[in-house]
Automatic annotation (TrEMBL), chain A:
It is a single-pass membrane protein. This is phospholipid:diacylglycerol acyltransferase. The lineage of its organism: Eukaryota, Viridiplantae, Streptophyta, Embryophyta, Tracheophyta. It is found in: Membrane. It comes from Oldenlandia corymbosa var. corymbosa. The chain crosses the membrane at residues 48-70.
UniProtKB/TrEMBL annotation, chain B:
Residues 29-51 have a biased composition (Basic and acidic residues). Belongs to the AB hydrolase superfamily. Lipase family. GO terms for molecular function: O-acyltransferase activity; phospholipid:diacylglycerol acyltransferase activity. Keywords: Acyltransferase, Membrane, Transferase, Transmembrane, Transmembrane helix. One of its GO terms (cellular component) is membrane. This is phospholipid:diacylglycerol acyltransferase. It comes from the Eukaryota. The keyword Amino-acid biosynthesis does not apply. Residues 21-56 are annotated as: Disordered.
Length: 671, 684
């Protein structure tokens, strides 16, 4: 209305020049007034506001027209364009296999991983009003921007118990919608679901075992009875589908969650599900692990240690201000760290198996690894295989030092590193003054002494990292110790291994007694994946996180295993091939002590190929990246075939691109 | 597209030229000759005054296009501003304080979640989504076809209808199409955005501690017959497994079931199914219900059927549709627009077996015969008011009196659920046959008809006239009528539903599933600890019987009958309005249907209720919302809106938190349901 009102006065005083900007024009108009009386009057009306409005209106109309056209466009139009440019696309696997005559047979259970599942609010504090049953996690994340502090408060768990804080109930979304799309347009399970539906799957034969991925696995049962729910649903689906066993497809952290489930369901009732020792044999046909971090993820260490991963460290290096407290007073990273440290589940992904698996100061199973780009070139030119390419510098990369302070430490031979044990160091005085109080992380209790001691130790291997985390975050780790364990069992028959904290560690549990079951390890390879970090002390640490990844540490060598302070190996961008493949490649192969009934295992790798065409192919049909692999045609075909009744042999057994078998051989583990 | 681009170019190019005309040139035509010069001048001007580039572009005259753009710009900007302001607004304006929801109040009283809750949605309110479709439905995979925003109806109406129809023969999926119920709480929390169904109840339950682990929405495909939901989707097995799971994981606390509308008879079906041994039933054994179910709180139960269904099946219309037709006859008329909306709707509806489950049950014994009906003497609201105004004392005394019935000599003959012509609905039954049929019949040409297929097409004009000649139909003869007009549908449906009254409930034939959803042909389970509630609204005129006429359209494929909207009651027959007789109810279900079983059929130990399950009637008198701010009303009694009724929510919450019927205060009655039930004479 105010716009309309403003127009009137300008009409009245049209004789006098109305605005300075128009001075000249107005005067000139005076001359031409006689000729075109109409014109001049109209011209006066054009004020700045009018112009703006005209512009806005124009854009709006154009937008509407375009939207209208877009909506009127037949749905298959993009396909025509694609086919015109790239030639006919291959059929999506569902269509292809439907034509082959495959039909839905075994019920399918999806187990989503960390982060990808939606969480919704059931009870909240005052500030979360109106968000009842709205997604806090997943969806559009609109609330992060609207009320960030409120959001952080509701997403955090209780610091002591690892369960709900008082007065807040955030619960997982149920059903297939829980993790079909993470945010609108970013699929997780949706493509797989759509392809399964092609051969006849629907809600009654597909079940998404959504759970609260922030909780430790056993707490999911304690609070939400999620494990009981999975058990009951699998039983129901097997019963209503004529006794056909279920095919379980866990992804990412869901893999170890389901490992936990398989032990839980066998354990007797108070602690477990009381399904008896043959429950798995009766109800599960195959477990098809996608990108499973069986042995943990080095990324989790960086996440817990300094709330950063490669992406964040890069952002910090490029725009040091953006994440810095001094400028915006936001302390984003600290909030992030405070929140994620209340999530027990992140601790389930700390590297397991210690030095035996991940390597010591001087040795690591992946040593000698040459990035794939290089590898291809080399095999083309000199015919020297990666194994015998001993002259390569990359051989000296010491992946075993998962955290090293300074690039020189990361590269020096172990004899040259002077290490001062940090474990007994006195933590010294509290650094935190009043100003930091609002964002509390355990670093504030550490004091300068503690920080110094950590840096003095120089290099940490996988085994020592657990101690390191105990040192820097004692409360968190105390909570985590109740639920997770990271070692290797000497004697699996020791009754202590009946405790649930060992169930999610494949090196401390036996697989269930189900000789007909099959276990698949399906993961992408060919993408540099974080494996070890070069750290430094944060220069200005007042209430800041005292350590950060040293993004200046870069390797000049063409191999470039070290980049921005991160050593990378082969993997799917999140999980190194070692963690995803080792169990199926060696530890569970045949009858071992971890696999007493000799469950068949298969390694299926998918070599990463970036989408050839960004616009039309989206995230790629041959991607090997951790989440994008869910849209990989080859992977989907494998899954659909198994769901329709095929066995591992029918698929062609192992399919390996990486050096996983060579690396596994180097690992010296009692089997 | 191309023209708009052209216009845009003109806008950008011609305007500077026009502007330059203001420099002193006289006419437009000359300018065009001197275009180059003026353009140069323009450029010069630009150099002089570079900052005001946009200003200079201003055209001299208001062109229509500019005006439009500007107006749109104004509107957009204002809209955005308002939107922004609304978003900035604190969630609770001090002025607009919303009354405290019952959940919050009860929480302060100390109520907490105790018994797991199962919600069973009714017909129509549950969402349906597409899992497999014809090519025309591309891109709709796992999108809602029913519920949500219904945008597809407008985009591709025929495709939409095709996918929502079921197979005409089997009542299951047509080949190549799979439409399935949306599972989870989202299935029926909102029907369309902003139109709540269960959302308010869910929110209030959540306030006292419920969440998805102890609350379950038993969504099912409401188009199918009840047994077919088990055959196709195993929906009943799923419900059984969920109840067992919740019972176990919640410390062996029994479940409170809250069905709504058709969900009530669906759950009745479930109760029988779960007890029956396996091939046909769920094999839960005779004490399953007693072990797992604490209470069944039926909201707006359609136990004995809904007369509205009759109108729906016969002519695909009910009060609302008929009214629209009366007001704007063109809109729904097939002749004018060639849309045949109603015919399409009817064709689709008739493939849905579940609709048949809502036909009035119990025949004349319940719904009345040609001359008698249990509700006779009901005084309609409008009529009541008029009476109290004009002649006060005497008559008012009469109608509150028990014998007020006698006073109204010419009570509406509700028993005649369908009558052809207003007269036929009023005269005593002995005169019915004397009424001459005045309606001439048209010969329908069968050749040129399109694709819309209803079973009417197979009816000869003679049989239609036979239908009309019978003049009046009661609940019993109605079945014959439907069998005549829609033989295939009824044949299909009668394999799944039965609408009679059992003579001998121990007859082994009643073990068949088609009787399970009819409360008059089944025994309640053997569960003496269970409680059954009938919660429903009262005080809204509800369709009870119809006055029909022959449709005058002589085009083929048209529905030959329609409600005679001109039939309006006057004086004493104020219950007749727009061709529809009204009684008390919740706008959809008459109190007779909703309350009778709890009021009489199951009260105490009867043959329908051998174990003496306690029944309670809780009525909620309808009060329209005070102000618009209240939305659909906190004290509404309407069939769906009652789910937001504060008193009802409180009752449900209390029971879920452990109270029993006596704690709630037993019966709570506003209507004449007790009186009406007394008049119904069936053997108990």
């Amino acid at each position: 209305m105010s716009f309309l009102r403003r127009r009137k006065p300008s009409e009245k005083q049209h004789v006098a020049p109305s605005s300075e900007q128009k001075l000249e024009e107005e005067e000139k108009e005076h001359h031409s007034r006689k000729n075109e009386a109409k014109n001049k009057e109209a011209k006066k009306k054009w004020s700045c506001v009018d112009n703006c409005c005209w512009f806005v209106g124009f854009i709006c109309s154009l937008w509407w027209i375009l939207t209208f056209l877009y909506n009127a466009m037949p749905a298959s139009f993009p396909q025509y364009v694609t086919e015109a440019i790239t030639g006919p696309l291959p059929d999506p696997p569902g269509v292809k296999l439907q034509k082959e005559g495959l039909k839905a047979k075994h019920p399918v259970v999806f187990v989503p991983g960390i982060v990808t599942g939606g969480l919704e609010l059931w009870e909240g504090h005052q500030c979360a009003e109106g968000l009842f049953r709205k997604r806090l996690w997943g969806g559009t994340f609109g609330e992060v921007y609207k009320r960030p502090l409120c959001w952080v408060e509701h997403m955090s768990l209780d610091n002591e118990t690892g369960l709900d804080p008082a007065g807040i109930r955030v619960r997982p979304v149920h059903g297939l919608v829980a993790a079909d799309y993470f945010v609108p347009g970013y699929f997780v399970w949706a493509v797989l679901i759509a392809n399964l539906a092609r051969i006849g799957y629907e809600e009654k034969t597909m079940y998404m075992a959504a759970y609260d991925w922030r909780l430790s696995f056993q707490n999911n049962e304690v609070r939400d009875q999620t494990l009981s729910r999975i058990k009951s649903n699998i039983e129901l689906m097997v019963a209503t589908n004529g006794g056909k066993k279920a095919v379980v497809i866990p992804h990412s952290m869901g893999v170890i969650y389901f490992l936990h489930f398989m032990k839980w369901v066998e354990a007797p009732a108070p602690m477990g599900g009381g399904g008896g020792p043959d429950w798995c044999a009766k109800h599960i046909k195959a477990v098809m692990n996608i990108g499973g971090p069986f042995l943990g993820v080095p990324k989790a260490v960086a996440g817990l240690f300094s709330a950063e991963a490669r992406d964040i460290a890069m952002a910090k290096a490029i725009a040091p201000g953006a994440l810095d407290k001094d400028i915006f007073h936001i302390q984003t990273l600290q909030y992030l760290m405070k929140m994620t440290r209340t999530w027990d589940s992140t601790m389930s992904m700390i590297p397991k198996g210690g030095d035996t698996i991940w390597g010591s100061l001087d040795w690591s199973p992946e040593e000698g690894y040459i990035p794939s780009k290089k590898r291809k070139q080399r095999s083309n030119s000199t015919e020297v295989s990666g194994d015998s390419g001993t002259e390569s510098k990359s051989r000296n990369v010491k992946y075993g030092r998962m955290i090293s302070f300074g690039k020189d430490v990361a590269e020096a031979p172990s004899s040259e590193i002077k290490r001062i044990d940090f474990r007994d160091a006195i933590k010294g005085k509290n650094v935190a003054n009043n100003t930091c109080r609002d964002v509390w992380t355990e670093y504030h209790d550490m004091g300068f002494g503690g920080i110094k001691a950590v840096a003095e130790y120089k290099a940490y291997t996988a085994g020592e990292i657990v101690d390191l985390l105990h040192f820097v975050a004692p409360k968190m780790m105390a909570r985590g110790d109740k639920h997770f364990s990271y070692g290797i069992a000497d004697d699996l028959d020791d009754p202590k291994y009946n405790h649930y904290k060992y169930w999610s560690n494949p090196l401390e549990t036996k697989l269930p007694n189900a000789p007909e079951m099959e276990i698949y390890s399906m993961y992408g390879v060919g993408i540099p994946t974080e494996r070890a970090y070069v750290y430094r002390e944060t220069p200005s640490s007042d209430c800041y996180i005292p350590f950060e990844i040293d993004t200046s540490a870069d390797e000049d060598d063409e191999d470039k295993c070290l980049k921005n302070g991160v050593y990378t190996v082969d993997g799917d961008e999140t999980v190194p091939a070692l963690s995803a493949g080792f169990m199926c490649a060696k530890a569970w192969r045949g009858k071992t002590r971890f696999n007493p009934s000799g469950i068949k295992t298969f390694v299926r790798e998918y070599d990463h190929a970036p989408p050839s065409n960004l616009l039309l192919e989206g995230r790629g049909t041959q991607s090997g990246a951790h989440v994008d692999i869910m849209g990989n045609f080859a992977l989907m075909e494998d899954i659909i075939r198994v769901a329709a009744g095929a066995t591992g042999e029918d698929l062609g057994g192992d399919r390996v691109y990486s050096d996983i078998f060579k690396w596994s051989e180097k690992i010296n583990l009692k089997l | 597209m191309a023209s708009s681009i052209l216009r845009f170019r003109k806008l950008c190019f011609v305007e500077p030229v026009k502007w330059s005309s203001s420099l002193g040139s006289e006419s437009c035509q000359k300018q065009k000759n001197e275009e180059k010069q003026t353009y140069d001048a323009f450029k010069e001007q630009e150099k002089e005054n570079p900052k005001g580039k946009r200003q200079k572009k201003q055209p001299k005259e208001w062109r229509c296009m500019d005006n439009c753009c500007r107006t749109i710009g104004y509107i957009c900007t204002t809209w955005w501003l308002l939107l922004f302001l609304v978003n900035c607004l604190p969630a609770n304006l001090p002025g607009l304080s919303v009354p405290e929801p019952p959940g919050a109040r009860l929480k302060r009283e100390g109520l907490t979640a105790l018994h797991p809750v199962v919600l069973v949605p009714g017909i129509v309110t549950g969402g349906l989504e597409l899992w497999e479709g014809k090519p025309c439905s591309e891109g709709l995979f796992r999108k809602r076809l029913w519920g949500g925003s219904f945008t597809e109806i407008f985009k591709r109406p025929l495709c939409w209808l095709e996918h929502l129809s079921l197979d005409n023969e089997t009542g299951l999926d047509p080949p190549g199409i799979r439409v399935r119920a949306v599972p989870g709480l989202v299935a029926a929390d909102y029907f369309a955005p902003g139109y709540f169904v269960w959302a308010i109840l869910i929110e209030n339950l959540a306030k006292i501690g419920y969440e998805s682990k102890n609350m379950y929405m038993a969504a099912y495909d409401w188009r199918l017959s009840f047994q077919n939901t088990e055959v196709r989707d195993q929906a009943l097995s799923r419900l059984k497994s969920k109840i067992e799971l919740m019972y176990l994981t919640n410390g062996r606390r029994k479940v409170v079931v809250v069905p709504h509308s058709m969900g009530v008879i669906y759950f009745l079906h479930f109760l029988k199914w779960v007890e029956t041994p396996t091939p046909m039933g769920g094999g839960g054994g005779p004490d399953w219900c007693n072990k797992h179910i604490k209470a069944v709180m039926n909201i707006g139960p359609a136990f004995l059927g809904v007369p509205k269904t009759v109108g729906n099946l016969l002519s695909a219309e009910s009060k609302d549709v008929a009214l629209v037709r009366a007001m704007a006859p063109v809109l729904l008329d097939s002749k004018t627009l060639g849309l045949q909306t109603l015919e399409h709707a009817m064709r689709v509806c008739r493939t849905w077996d579940s609709v048949v489950s809502l036909l009035p049950k119990g025949g004349d014994a319940i719904w009345g015969n040609l001359d008698w009906s249990p509700e006779e003497g009901h005084i309609c609201d409008s009529f009541k008011e008029r009476r109290t105004q004009s002649s006060s004392v005497d008559k008012k005394g009469n109608y509150t009196d028990d014998r007020g019935v006698i006073h109204l000599k010419e009570a509406s003959k509700y028993g005649r659920i369908i009558s052809f012509g207003k007269e036929a609905s009023e005269v005593p039954s002995s005169h019915l046959s004397t009424l001459a049929s005045k309606v001439g019949l048209h010969n329908t040409a069968n050749i040129s008809c399109g694709k819309v297929w209803t079973e009417y097409d197979e009816m000869s004009p003679e049989s239609i006239s036979k239908v009309v000649e019978k003049k009046a139909y009661t609940a019993t003869t109605l079945a014959d009528l439907l069998r005549l007009v829609a033989p295939k549908m009824m044949q299909r449906a009668e394999a799944h539903f039965s609408h009679g009254i059992a003579e001998n409930l121990d007859d082994p034939k009643y073990n068949h599933y088609k009787y399970w959803s009819n409360p008059l042909e089944t025994k309640l389970p053997n569960a003496p600890d269970m409680e059954i509630y009938c919660l429903y609204g009262a005080g809204i005129p509800t369709e009870r019987s119809y006055v029909y006429k022959l449709s005058h359209s002589d085009k083929c494929k048209s529905i030959p009958f329609q409600i005679d909207t001109s039939a309006d009651g006057s004086g004493i027959n104020g219950c007749l309005k727009g061709g529809v007789y009204f009684v008390d109810g919740d706008e959809t279900v008459p109190v007779l249907s909703a309350g009778f079983m709890c009021a009489k059929g199951w009260r105490g130990k009867t043959r329908f209720n051998p174990s003496g399950i306690a029944t309670y009637i809780r009525e909620y008198r309808h009060k329209p919302p005070m102000s618009l701010l209240e939305g659909r009303g906190l004290e509404s009694g309407a069939h769906v809106d009652i789910m937001g009724n504060v008193a009802l929510i409180e009752d449900v919450l209390r029971v879920a938190a452990g109270a029993n019927g006596a704690d709630l205060g037993g019966d709570r009655i506003y209507s004449d349901i007790m009186k009406i039930s007394e008049r119904v004479n069936i053997r108990l």
